Amino acid sequence: LTPLLPHLDHRNRGMRTRLGCLSHKSDSYNDFTAILPDKPNRALNLPSPSFATPRVSLADGLAAFRAFLKTEFSEENLEFWLACEDFKKTRSAAKLASKAQRIFEEFIDVQAPREVNIDFQTRELTRRNVQEPSLSCFDQAQGKVHSLMEKDSYPRFLRSKIYTDLLSQTQRRLS
After folding, report:
1. Which of 23, 75, 69 lies closest to 44 in space, CA to CA?
2. pTM value?
3. What is the pLDDT of residue 13?
């Protein structure tokens, strides 16, 4: 989700590369804070409508983005993206296959409980990739979902009441 926050402080480029968005515990994947740098509570600079840049914590920002996605019935996109990031950290070949299958069944398979909106070709490529899983087997599907959030959900989030309320709360805490 790195391009989703082009306005992040450039000194935090490593954090943007790892997560690129806001962080909070996932509902279906125990703890993805391990994909963050050593200080998961580090704050990110997010734009505000008044051009001030209040510091919004990673956890608060992700909670707000997740809440926004729930209002749009599309939180599965963020959950899938985070599951893929967690999957890429898998070092055990035995765990790789079971994690790949679980992610596929939860997010990719037709009529999956939290099916993400991807095209047929990407779904079929991912199905084949999962047969012989590698750390990159979800890359194309993850890229499609990322692009969808970047071009669709995230710009609306930045204009939403949820986001403006988050900025207001942050500014009150800083005052």
Report:
1. 23
2. 0.70
3. 38
